[in-house]
# Entry
Amino acid sequence: MEPANTLREDGECKGGILAHLERLETQMNRSHKRFEGPQRTQAEESTLGTRIHKLRLLRDKLRAEVKQRQAEIEASAASTEPDQTLETSEQEVLETKLENLKALLQAYHFTGLSGKLTSRGVSVCIHTAFDGNLLDSYIVDLVIEKPLWIHHHSVPVFIPLEEIAAKYLQTDVQHFLFSLCEHLNGYAGRKYQADRLQSDFAAFLAGPLQRNSLCNVLSFTYKVELGGQSFLFCARLLYKDLTVTLPTDVTVTHRGTDALSTSWEEQRVSHENLFRTTSLHKAFTSFAGGEKLNMSLPPCYFH
Amino acid sequence: MDETVAEFIKRLFLKIPMTEMMTILKAWDFLSESQLQTVNFRQRKEPLVQELVLLCEEKCASLNDAALLDIIYTQVHRHQKLWDVFKMNKGPVLTGEDIDLFDIEQFKSSFTKILRKALKNVTVSFRDAEENAVWIRIAWGTHHTKPNQYKATYVVYYPQTPYVFMSLSRLKRNTPLLDQALMIASKHHQIVKMDLRSRYLDSLKAIVFKQYNQVFETHDSAAPLQETSLWLHTNMDLRVIHENKVEKERVQRVTQETFGDCPQPRLEFAQYKLETKFKSNLNGGILADREEPLRCLIKFSSPHLLEALKSLAPAGIADAPLSPLLTCIPNKGMNYFKIKDK
# Structure
């Protein structure tokens, strides 16, 4: 294009012509473009249109798939609903079972038995009671192994724990615990009566109360007054069953050489019956003129 | 007062340490309060003892009173004697007759009668003790000699239990008679010596009656059990790392399961008589091929054997769990074992 530049100095005609031609060329190019534009946009439009169409198709297809999946889920959800109701009912059953067991344990607690898990087994606590009074508690530690064995305990040495364990521990633990419970309650009841007699009614006793470890042999001498006369009676109470708190054998004898008059003999027999049917301290309360015990009442047994 | 009785009482007083004199005299309850008040307890022992003996003479102390004083002294110093444990059996039990209607007075009179029948000269004394135990003191003589008061046998019996504790009698020839008297008076048919022996009577009682002085896991308190091991906690210095922490914790747990948390009953020794074939890893050797069992006696001694055994594994000296031959001592109630090949 240098000649165009060099010719400008000569005259505008030469520069002018080439420049004019150039201008015409560029004009032509531009108009070509203008002419091509709509064609091109049209082509573009059509491609875009097909693309849109494809996308729409794809969208519809996906929408259909989504719907189908949702329908499937809903269908399966509908079928799992009955399972959920089953789970809740099972849970309810278990909960009621648990409540029953807790209530049972609490009920056992009222009978005096309570238990606690230990690292090796179970620690059972036996609470004893007599005549509405809560007495001592004793603990037995069991190791749960084959065979079941007693690790240690706080049961008094003269309670036949070894014998009871030999009979029941391996075959029927419940029976073992109940038997032990009976023995301990029997002992606690007898001991309570003997202690009460010694402490509250010492004035009646002429001489010490003789007792043994299990409190199942009690002998004492006591004063009885009737119509100005006073006599000494010797009572010997045997409890041949270790689980009872009322004696199995009672003998009341008169301390003295002369034979008893009939009224005194009646007294002696009535005292024998009294000791056989009432607890010791209650019998002595009646001697002290406290409650008048009605002998026609059926005997009551305290456990 | 007999001279021998006076001499006996004097020797008893001389044995009693000064610190215990007042308590023992009060327990004896033979000299009255007013008499004791006249005595100067601050003087030296010999003149004090002479004064006391004079007071006893004034009150005409008998041999039985002296024997009672001897029992009290022995009760306070029970660990000075070595105690054996015996178990009595009732034999075949007839139904309806198995309940023990024990009467202490009957027992005492029956026991004394049996001994007196066999040996004319014997001193028998009784003293009740804690937990319904009855202490029996027997001084033995023969048909011709008076009882030797200085070598008395002591028996501790827990009525309505099968167990009896006896101090080893040096006069062994009287043992069968004593056994018989005990059995008949307590209405048992058989008496068996257990393989259990110690100075500590209270520990023997705890083992045999399975009662340990302990804090039971009480049902009311929610307090956690005391930490008995200090091995893992002595060094709180963070620069110190405990190697084998897991192993140490396992050892602690196993030890606690075997021995419990409570203080162990006190024994001084455990003796194992082995009659087993010699087992050796080495091939050959003099003892290896013997057919006959090797006889040897192993004795473990300690001021407190069970506590020592309990601390073996935590100290790293032995593996946990320990051999059951060692750990079964309180549960089986034995510290003398005879082991043979099965």
